[in-house]
Every structure is written in structure tokens, then in C-alpha cells.
Fold each of these.
Amino acid sequence: MAGAATASVDSDSSSPIVTARDVTKVYKRGSEPGLIGRIVGRSEPPAVHAVDSVSLEIAPGEIVGLAGSSGSGKSTLLHLLSGLEQPTAGTVSFRETDLAALSARERTRHRLENIGIVFQRFHLLDSLSARANVALPLVELGVPKRERRKRATELLERIGLGDRITHRPGELSGGEQQRVAIARALITDPALVIADEPTGELDTATGQKILEEFKQVAENRTIVLASHDQETLEICDRVIRLRDGAITTRQTQEVNR
Ligand code: ADP
Ligand code: MG
């Protein structure tokens, strides 16, 4: 193909890890009125543009904050960036791969291998020990039990829970449960870590401590973190602010680019 100039260099360390181009997610609220409803003139439920034409690029090693009040679209955007949900319009790419080009099964695999997710409410399994919770993603990846236990124990030790590995979530404090959830997100060595309101359930002091540990244990991994809390956003290199699903401002907290 003469003229196919500058094919993208695949291992360029500065090329974005995640790219969103004009990404929109529309939810139809409530039930559809249906045929009868339309005949009698009942109006359609209003559609919600949870994310509205968002474009962004996230470089390897960046810690990016998504700010905005409740309902501004932070969680939805995180779900789109991770491939957990598909956009109504626009594209999300992980490195050079357009997530829409993958089958549902391939997207699940992609998430398992490349993305770690930390949720606000920890999402731990109550019947499993801290170590078994942390090791869970490795079960799906087919890692042998011995290796799983070894890696989960090491990670729990690094995050300061070496003496809690056989405790169940119900026997741990909120901060400890979030540390377990962080360890679970990191156990697969993901290139991208997504955290949705990771301090939302914790008191301020505990939240700050957990964030510091998170940053340390995540090492130089790329993190996208949603929060409406200014103190939480302070660990970010830059903050993207959302309102009604759209980007309002991009703040650079350090020299960036
Ligand atoms: P945030 O995380 O910033 O609080 P969300 O992304 O959860 O915001 O929600 C953005 C908007 O999309 C809100 O108006 C919310 O009600 C709506 N929304 C989110 N998820 C759904 C869904 N599954 N179905 C319908 N509406 C949704
Ligand atoms: Mg949210």
C-alpha cells in the first residue's frame, strides 16, 4: 500500500493507553410507552445522556481524576473506558484496539487481563477469606492454586494486611476491606486501574491513608479515579470535570505534556 504513511508504532511508550473519541452513552429511562401508548399520544420517557460526546486520551503512568457531582456521568464513563459497557456512539480504544471490534467474550478477557477495578462498596465475597478474594481474578486466568496463594499473600503483605489474610470481609474494617479490594484489582498486574469513588465509604482520614497506599502499591500504573471529593482528587496528575455527561474543564495539577 504505497502512501500508507506513518503506520502507528505499536510499542511507543508515550502513545495513549486509553482513548475515547466522541463517546456518548444514552439510557432510556423507564419503560417504553409501546404501540398503544404511542397511539394515544403518551410521550416517550426522556432519554438520559449519561455521557455526552466525551473525548480524552490517557497516557501510560498517568493518574487521572474524573470529577463532578453525583449523576454527572463519572461511573458511566469509567464503565465505558473499561469496556464493561458499550457506548451508544463514539469509540473507546485500549492501546490500538477498538473495544467495539471485540466480541463480548473477548472484552471480558480484555478486562480480566488489562484492567483492575476498585469499587466504592468493595464488592468482596463474604464467604471467602481476604486472600481468596484477592486471588479470585487469577482463578479465572487459570493460575495454579499455589501460585495464586503466593501472589495474593505477597500483595496483602505489601498493602499492610499480612496479618489479616485468612479474615473474612465481615471481620475487617471498611479501610481494610478497601485494601483487600485494591489488592484484588492489582493481582493480575493490570496496565490500567479504574477506581470508582474508592474513598466514598470511608472517613476522611482513612480515605487519605488508603489512597496513599493505593498509589504506592499501584507503582507506576495508569489510574483513572472518579470522585466528587476534592481531597481524593489531589493525588491525581490532572482532573477532568464532568457536568451532565460532558467535559467542562481539564485541570493540569502538574506539568503535563
Ligand atoms: P455519577 O457516577 O457521576 O454519579 P452516573 O454515571 O452513575 O453518574 O450517572 C449518570 C446519569 O446516568 C445519571 O443521570 C443516572 O441516573 C443515569 N444512569 C446511570 N446508569 C443508568 C442506567 N443503567 N439506566 C438509566 N440511567 C442511568
Ligand atoms: Mg458514580
Amino acid sequence: MKKIAILAGDGVGPEITAQAVAVLEALEHGGVKLAMQEAPVGGAAYDAAGDPLPESTLKLAKEVDAILFGSVGGPQYDALPRPKRPEQALLRLRKELGLFANLRPATVHPQLVNASTLRPEVVSGLDVLIVRELTGDIYFGQPRGIRPAEGGGREGFDTMRYTEHEIVRIARVGFLAARKRSRRLCSVDKANVLETSQLWREVVTAVGKEYPDVALTHMYVDNAAMQLLRDPKQFDVIVTGNMFGDILSDEASMLTGSIGMLPSASLDERSKGLYEPIHGSAPDIAGKNAANPLAAILSAAMMLRYSLGEDAAAVRVERAVAKVLAQGLRTADLHEPGTTRLGTREMGEAVVAALE
Ligand code: NAD
């Protein structure tokens, strides 16, 4: 029996997470045994307990095998002091649980090619996974600061830094993810300019010897940014550092044009993970049964694959999502003439009904 924490959070979080839970419950009838427990997080936890990440929620998050996360935040919390802000819950969870690997797939379902700003033939069938290192790099490297500059005025400085250990462990996540897909891994760096990237390329190449069944290539980040727009289907899995991954994963998500469809995972060294849609709490549509629950449902599918070892169940969920789209069912964000518009709840029910 695997243990799951359900942290639904704020805004549309509870609505979309309820549909993901309904899909997981439907799988239980098919033999996937899960013990799910809810806990407050974000603004909802601040309202209830004065803390966006109460001790009881953190304790639960540490005990379980995986966390299904909704979204946190909202305009009513924007004036709070930083430690009380909802997004602190997510930052603390990442830190406390050592979630160093961020996995973001960008998939374009054939029925949704028109949602992309790119030509249909460029993105139709796109299925790329970006593995981004999440806890190192120039975002955390010391020293950093703003100081008086030689010759007058001030200068800002940051330190790009990766240890061999950090590169090895994120490279392994990339190779293992590629093994679950079409066995191609592209490592993105800036080794022609940066020392950090030279070490990165050397270490990734060495780790690659342990995975002879995965075809490893290297690409400079500027070229990768271009190739993602020119011919994104050339990629299977991309592994890269924190800053390059931050930028490339947002670029890749826009190829799909549908923020309500994209899941993500953040993993620790033992493949325990936190799974969440890439979108926020969408306060503008919260409580209206209007949000697209498919990103949350696909996050649950990623959880089945990467933390629970239930690959077959993950495929069942992904096929059910593809099936409802093929049936022309859409939430408001993706509705177009000739398709049937559903609410959040009804879309969740349609996915449950489409499970094979
Ligand atoms: P957002 O992703 O919440 O919304 C951006 C736009 O996309 C909105 O128009 C929204 O209606 C739409 N949208 C988002 N999810 C949707 C869905 N499932 N179905 C249909 N439409 C959807 O981003 P934002 O407006 O910049 O942020 C709102 C709040 O969410 C802020 O408080 C922000 O801090 C927070 N936020 C939280 C997370 C997180 O929990 N991981 C991530 C990003 C933003």
C-alpha cells in the first residue's frame, strides 16, 4: 500500500485536485492500492493555522511515498510578510524533502495543435521531457551580491556553481527518464564559454557510460532555444541545469499553448516526488467549476510512473485523457467550435469513464 499526501491548496487547486483524486480512486478498483490523506497548504493553511506549511502537513509530506499538490497563492495573500506567503510552502517543501530534479513534459495532443502559436506540422505529436536541476546553479551559488565596483558605481555578481555529485545525480534522473521513453537524452550546457558547463559535459558523458542503451547528445543552450522552436520533435529528454532549465521549460510549455494541460514532478534521490500542474491557482476562475483538471490528472499519472512504479496505470490515465480529447470534450480554456464544453467536475468524470 503506497501512501499519498493530497495538498490541494488555494484557488482552483481544490477543484482540480479533487478530479485527480477521483481518477486515482477509480484505479484502485483496478488493483492500484493507495492510502490518500489530505492536509492544508498555502493560503488555506495560513487561514486555518497561521502558517502556509503547518508542522503537521510537513510531517505528513515526509512520511508519504508521493505528494499530489494543487496550487497555492491568491491576491488576498499578496500583502503578507514573506515567511507567511503561500508560495513559501512550496519552497520549503522542496528544500525539506530535497527535491532536486524537476521533470516537465511538454506534450501536444493531436486534437490541440491549434492551441499552439507554432504551425501544426511543427508541434503535432510533440512529446518532450525537460529534466531541470532545481537546487543548485547560479540561483543558489555563493558569493553573490551588489557591491561598489572598481572605478566607481556598483556591480552585481552571482556565482554559477555545480559539484560533480550534483551533476551525477541529475544526469542519472535524465538517463532513467529516457529509459522510460525513447532512449534519447540531450544534455544542454554552455560548455564553449562556461567552466561550470565544461565540468557538466565531462561528468554527464562519464555517467552516460552506465547507460549504453541511451543515446546521449550535447547541445549549447542558445542552439537548444532555437531548435525547440525550429524542430521541437527532434528531442526526447533534455537534461540541463537550473537556469537554462528554467528558461527552456517555459519555452517548451508555450509550444503546447495550453497551460491547463501540463503536469510536472519534483523528485528526490529516491524518486519520492511532489507532483503538480505547472499553472497557478487561477483566482480569476476559482470556484466556478471552469478550470481544466487535466494538468492535475496528468500529474497523478506522472506520480504513478515516477514514484509509485505503476507504469501501466500511468499509461491508462494518459490514454483516458487522450480519449476524452478525441471525443471532442473540452474545458472552457480549450473550447472551440465543434467541441463540447465541460466543467471541471464533468471533465474529471469523463476521464474516469474513459479509463480502460
Ligand atoms: P495562473 O497559472 O494561476 O493563471 C494564468 C492564467 O491561466 C489565468 O488566466 C488562469 O485563469 C489560466 N489558467 C491557469 N490554470 C488553468 C486551468 N487549470 N484551467 C484553465 N485556465 C487556467 O498564473 P497567475 O495568474 O500568474 O497566478 C495566480 C496565483 O497563482 C498567484 O498567486 C501566483 O503566485 C500563484 N502561482 C502558484 C503556482 C504554484 O502553486 N505552483 C504557480 C504559479 C503561480
